[in-house]
Amino acid sequence: MKILIIEDEPELLENIKNSLEKEQFLVETASDYNTAIDKVFVYNYDCILLDIMLPNGSGLDILSQLKKAGKGKHVIIISAKDSLEDKLTGLELGADDYLTKPFHLAELNARIKVVLRRNNLDGKNILQFCNTQLDLDERLLTVDDKNIPLNRKEFDILTYFYLNKNRLITKTALAEHVWGDHIDQADNFDFIYYQIKNIRKKLQESNAQIKFEAVYGVGYKIVENEAS
Amino acid sequence: MKLLNQSLKYLSGSILIIITLWAVVFYLNMLQEIKKSIDEGLENYKRIIIQNAKKDPTILTKTYFDESFFTIHKINKKEAFTIKDQYKDTLLYMQDFDDEVPESEPVRMLTTAFKIDHNYYLLNVANSMVEEDDLIKELLYDIVVLYLFLVLSIILINNIMLKKLWHPFYSFLNQLKIYKLGNTQKLPKITTETKEFMDLQKAVNTLLEQNLAVFEQQKQFIGNASHELQTPLAITTNKLELLLEDEQLNKEQANTVSDVFKTIQKLVQLNKSLLLLSKIDNKHFFNNKVVNINKTTHDILEHLQDFSSYKNISISCKETAQLSIEIDIALANIVVSNLIKNAIIHNTNNGSIEIFIDTNSFTIKNTGINKSLDANQIFNRFHKSTNKTDGSGLGLAIVKAISDLYGFSIVYSFKKNSHCFNINFTIR
Q: What are the record keywords, sorted (chain A) (predicted)?
């Protein structure tokens, strides 16, 4: 999978690149308008991350040119501007998603994977991890083909972790992803622990070969359960 | 006290003093004039009597006052030479038309001496005078009437004139009263020829313009600052996220990084809130649609359920009507969710929340600390009622900013050990 990051802020570019490389993606970068234009029309990418404010031009211009050329697929806009107008223009021009800075790397991962899956549909929308399967269409978790009942929130949490296998998801990122903007009090994430505890119990009882690992009290990651 | 009444107060007071002084002077002058005039009459009378006496000596024997109001006594030469013409006020028994019995009335009397055929005579000529007490009474009566008349005229003139003169001022004042910095487009205007009022308008408008400039600058600064902070915050957040995934960190280091991460997340949250406030202040939202508050409330309650049930808070929602208002849907969500979140965060474990929705208002009551909060401070930016550091201190400020934007009123009260927020959507 090849991903192009168009972003003018070098530090941010570096962060995203590091994170995506951990996911085994092939990452290329462009940090100004001209380089970006050159790259998008010469190579094919599975996904393009596009910043709107660029030196020498606007990301939206790149997007409209891509659309004209019939290549405006798999684009995720990443912008510091949380403007509804930009969002609508971007989506109208064919962008798949719009992510406002600052974002969590886990969130970016999840969005990229969703976009990639959406565009490479092989009929089934299933996430596999060891002996577990998450059916995103039916919203079902199966362990060794056995259905494990989950409530809505639990399913959302698990999906997010499946899209970020072996990666840290901070409590903040998880709260923002699952509970949306409604939860934003940095200190009140204790309730997340109970949600995780419930899912953990269900995974253990069903002999799933995956487990949640707490990461320094700041978050969790889902990993293969080596003990089983 | 209104300006009209103020001026009336001073005018009526000073007129009272002026009229009183004037009345005294007038009375004294008039009295003097009357006496002078009577004295001239007496002089004339004296000459006629002397002339008549020369022709008709019987007159010289008239020693009592009767109808002709004079007496003549014979005196010796020596006495005669000591007498000079003398006018004096004295009293005589008389009966006026308004007297039932004769009584002493004030008269003016001329005492003089004359000589006919080597005989000397003393002549007393009298003439009735005005009665001073009558005069004073009359004068006082007139003055009271004059005074009342003047005061009435002043009231009338004042009313017409001041109202007319001050009309531009009052209209200017009313414009100022409803003027809201950053909300009112036009500066207050005064239509007048009066120099003072034009100066006032100039001074006020200069002041307003300066304030407006500062206000705009401040808004821009908050907006720009929080906007500029986003990228560094994004970089820091992501760097820390990557660092936390580093297997080579030892536990201590990891814990430090985790603490820094948590702090940065608070900063991110604070910055988001500031950006939102700045957007509200700059009216970046106005995608108004009819929003059903009942539905919004249920959606948010469901979203926050994990949050509230963690603290074992019981939530009840009583709806007597469907409440629909025209508002930006994102802002409606923020208002309702901030109020509910606030009620959850500041609640005690096992506490309760009651929500009431009727035709035009949304009320939320929650248990919490058993003490009223400072209603004047509670909606201020960065006001925190407790030392707990979790909230940003902006949640209620945002609710207030949105309410102000749309003209809703929001009130805090503390009754029966519960904190109550009522937001009335009737636009003021």
A: DNA-binding, Phosphoprotein, Transcription, Transcription regulation, Two-component regulatory system
Question: Do residue A11 and residue A81 come from a single domain?
Answer: yes
Predicted pLDDT of residue A128:
87
Same domain, A165 and A206: yes
Judged against a pLDDT cut of 70, whether residue A192 lies above it is answered with yes
Task: Single out the residue in A93, A119, A145 at which a domain terminates.
Answer: A119
Q: Both A99 and A150 in a single domain?
A: no
Put simply, the answer to whether B307 touches A183 (Cβ < 8 Å) is: yes
Check pLDDT > 50 for residue A95: yes
Position B135 confidence tier, pLDDT thresholds 50, 70, 90: confident
Provide the number of CB pairs (under 8 Å) joining chain A to chain B: 111
For residue B104, the model assigns a pLDDT of: 78
Query: What pLDDT shows up at residue A186?
Result: 43
CB atoms within 10 A of CB B132: 13
What is the reported pLDDT for A225?
A: 83
CB of A133 within 8 Å of a chain B CB? The answer is no
Tell me which residue range forms the domain holding A93. Answer: 2-119
| Domain coordinates in residue numbering, chain B | 3-148, 213-281, 288-424
Which two tokens mark A67? 């659309």
CA B247, chain centre distance (Å): 72
Q: B303 vs A18: CB contact, 8 Å cut-off? A: no
Domain count across chain A:
2
Decide: B362 and B425 in contact? Cβ < 8 Å: yes
Total count of residues recorded for chain B: 428
Per-residue pLDDT reduced to its tens digit, A65-91: 988 888 767 899 998 776 777 788 888
- CATH 3.30.565.10 holds for B288-424: yes
Q: B306 contacts in A (CB within 8 Å)? A: 153, 179, 191, 194-195
CB B287 to CB A84 under 8 A? Answer: yes
Asked if the Cβ–Cβ distance from A217 to B255 is below 8 Å, we say yes
Q: Does B307 touch chain A (CB under 8 A)?
A: yes
Give the residue from B113, B133, B111, B148 showing the smallest Cα distance to B19: B148
Tell me: cis bond preceding A10? Omega within 30 of 0 counts. Answer: no
> At B265, which amino acid appears?
Q
pLDDT confidence tier of residue B309, bands split at 50, 70 and 90 = confident
Q: Are residues A31 and A11 in the same domain?
A: yes
CATH of the domain at A149: 1.10.10.10
**Mean per-residue pLDDT for A27-40?**
92
Which of the residues B245, B277, B300 would you substitute to probe the A interface, choosing the one with the greatest number of A C-beta atoms within 10 Å?
A: B245
- Sheet with B103-116, strands from edge to edge, namely B70-75, B119-128, B103-116, B86-94
Same domain? A6 vs A66: yes
Give every CB contact of residue B287 below 8 A, 6+ residues apart in sequence: A84, B328, B329, B330
Q: Assess whether A108 and A7 both reside in one domain.
A: yes
Shortest distance, CA A122 to any CA of chain B (angstroms): 32
ipTM summary value: 0.86
Residues A228 and B421: their CA atoms lie apart, in Å, by 53
Report, as an integer, the average pLDDT of B313-336: 91
Other Cβ atoms closer than 10 A to B341? 22
Residues A9 and A115 in one domain: yes
**Domain end call among A68, A94, A119:** A119
Q: How far is A58 from chain B (nearest CA, A)?
A: 17
Q: What is the DSSP letter of B348?
A: P
In this structure, the answer to whether residues A93 and A183 fall within a common structural domain is: no
- Whether the predicted pLDDT of B282 surpasses 60: yes
Tell if the CB–CB gap between B233 and A102 is shorter than 8 Å: yes
Question: Residue B99 — very low, low, confident or very high, per pLDDT cuts 50/70/90?
Answer: low
| CATH number (domain holding residue A9) | 3.40.50.2300
With 60 as the cut, is the pLDDT of residue B387 above it?
Answer: no
